[in-house]
Amino acid sequence: MLWSDPENKPPKELRDAQDMLRRAGLVLALAMVIAMLVLGAR
Fold this sequence. Notes:
By secondary structure, the chain is mostly helical. 71% of the residues lie in helices and 0% in strands. Keywords: Membrane, Transmembrane, Transmembrane helix. It holds the Pfam family MmpB.
């Protein structure tokens, strides 16, 4: 890659959206684990 090439960074909006999706996925996974524990404890 040449030093004159533009940096290959996604725009801020895209990075923000990716962060939000990542957080939503983590929350969803955590909620699934808690639901499994609650249902399994009955």
